[in-house]
């Protein structure tokens, strides 16, 4: 029966892995995905909002992102937001749409993205280890019998190893995807 401390620790580690995978999704692989632009802030209606909150985002093919604002008045703001984000994309306003063609990726650019993926993976592993540390601290404060404490400590380590391995597996997949020339 998993202990409450193990469950809390596992939940924190799961959040860390989810965050890492979300960061991986935002890395430009040469294939268009809505995640590349959906969280870019746009100045619209007198406040800052994300593109996904004011427009529909689609990818008609692997080299193009099409953004269709629900209000035509924010088209220029969406285009400007993408340019300000400085993610290497050049939006083109086309009537009621903003088209964002993806440039071909050079070998150097691919290597840069691999380094970024490694950094995100390391940050994810650090977050998992911090969750383990927090769980072990909570365990020490719980003042449980020594045999139960040791068992829970082993469970926490097993969960830590599982989540770390998950991050490494996804990093390898992302690296393969980034280095793959289409």
Description of the molecule:
With 182 residues, this protein is of the alpha+beta class. The protein folds into 2 domains: 4-26 and 106-179, Orthogonal Bundle (Topoisomerase I, Chain A, domain 4), CATH 1.10.132; 34-101, Gyrase A, domain 2, CATH 3.30.1360.40. Helices cover 57% and strands 16% of the residues. The protein has 4 helices and 6 strands. The strands form 2 sheets. The chain has a 4-stranded antiparallel β-sheet with strand order 3-4-6-5, covered by helices on one side. The chain has a two-stranded antiparallel sheet with strand order 1-2. It starts with a helix and ends with a helix. This is Ribosome-recycling factor. InterPro entries: Ribosome_recyc_fac, Ribosome_recyc_fac_dom, RRF_sf. Pfam families: RRF.
Helix proportion: 55-70%
Which word captures the global form?
A: elongated
Number of helices: 4
First and last CA, distance: 48 Å
CATH architecture of the largest domain: Orthogonal Bundle
Number of strands: 6
